[in-house]
Amino acid sequence: MEATEAPSTLPTGAFSVWLRGMQNALRGERASDVPCEGCSACCSSSQFVHIDPDETEALAHIPSELLFAAPGTPIGYFLLGYDERGRCPMLTDGRCSIYKHRPRTCRTYDCRVFPATGLKIEGHDKALNAEQTRRWRFDYPGELDRNERDAVRAAAEFLQHEEVLPEGTSATSATQLAVLAVEVHDAFLRYDAGSRSTRVVTPDIQVVRVALTRRTRSSPRRP
Q: Considering Cα of 56, then 62, then 182, then 19, what sign does the dihedral take?
């Protein structure tokens, strides 16, 4: 009898295809294309949503009393909190009530970044989100898929050492750390023009710091 995939798993497709889409989303070129299919775990797991001053449309659709100044940022940067059940106050009947006007953080958020980086979501209040991330399954049809996965995971492991992060770069949550790993994973790959193949390497710490600094200067604010 032919084996069938367990109903609890969620196919994600080829790792490299997902990675390109994630990078495009983080650069602000598109929104994350997550097949949520009614799942609102990320909206129900006690998560703060960062909102920047230029997000006027989102700010116009969120009651001001639900916003507070984001600590350690200039005037005009806000956080949207959550209620006593850990739910986003804009979540109504299991759906986002401002979906078309949602903040950039929500547009770029992709919980598949956790299985991609091998990082875990910790905390009882984030159990729903953690359970959802465990269901994703990537495919690795080629060497590049496997090498890029290994590079992303190597970056995530490397960035957990605080001395690596240059001044002005912070990763105060697993989500931010995972995003940083995706953005700088190229530093952990080497391309061999002769064989037209890639391999995973351990870069010098300064190479990673330069990549992080460039990312901070050139990229829009991240979740």
A: negative
Three-state secondary structure string covering 87-103 = CCCCEECCEECCHHHCC
Query: pTM for the whole thing?
Result: 0.85
Give me the DSSP letters along 64-92. Answer: GGGEEEPTTS-TT-EEE---TTS--TTEE
Average pLDDT for 208-212: 87
CA atoms of 55 and 67, how far apart (whole Å):
13
Q: Which of 82, 105, 110, 102 is nearest to 21 (CA)?
A: 110
Backbone angles phi, psi at 58, to 5 degrees: -65, -45
SS3 19: helix
pLDDT per residue as tens digits for the range 93-132: 989 999 999 999 999 999 999 999 999 998 888 999 999 9
Which pLDDT score, from 0 to 100, does residue 193 have?
80
What angle is formed at CA 170 by the lines to CA 166 and CA 173, rounded to 5 degrees? 145
